[in-house]
Amino acid sequence: MLDKLSQWLTPSIVIHEVVWTLNELIGRQSTLLYVKALLSHRKMNIIPLSRQDISWSIGKIAEEALSLARYNDKIILSIAKRKNTPLVSFDNQLLSQASKEGIAIINPYLT
User: Fold this and answer.
1) What are the two backbone dihedrals, phi and then psi, of residue 90, each rounded to the nearest 5 degrees?
2) What's the CA gap between 65 and 1, in Å, rounded?
């Protein structure tokens, strides 16, 4: 699926999530090697967080009375909205939130 995309617009927070998750699954050394390779991939384009992303995310969490555990997801949604780009995720809850926000999605389960 990723091969079909011309570039990967990746919120910087997603890189952090990859590091934390892979460290638990495959350990420190393999994680470091994987992330280095990921960062050097020609399609990788890391999108930094903006003040507006943080503000929008906190506002949505307050408005929807959500746990702060949902902060990362809201940041990802904010960046997708700001960049006007479809969202790809294996997280069905995140894809559902994106649809509700009017963000186009690419569902990997359907491709």
Assistant:
1) -90, 0
2) 34
- Rounded to 5°, the CA angle 34-68-100 comes to 85
The DSSP secondary-structure symbol of 108 reads T
Q: Do residues 30 and 56 lie in contact, with contact meaning Cβ atoms separated by under 8 Å?
A: no
Q: Which residues of the chain have pLDDT under 50?
A: none
In the block, residue with structure tokens 């960046």: 79
Note the pLDDT of residue 110: 85
User: DSSP assignment, residue 28?
Assistant: H
Q: Which domains does the chain have, with CATH numbers?
A: 2-106 (3.40.50.1010)
Question: Where do we find the tokens 């809850």?
Answer: 93
Residue showing tokens 């470091």 = 32
In terms of DSSP bridges, do strands 44-47 and 8-11 run parallel, antiparallel, or are they unpaired?
parallel
Parallel, antiparallel, or unpaired: how do β-strands 44-47 and 105-106 relate? unpaired
Tokens of 12: 């910087």
d(CA 106, CA 48): 22
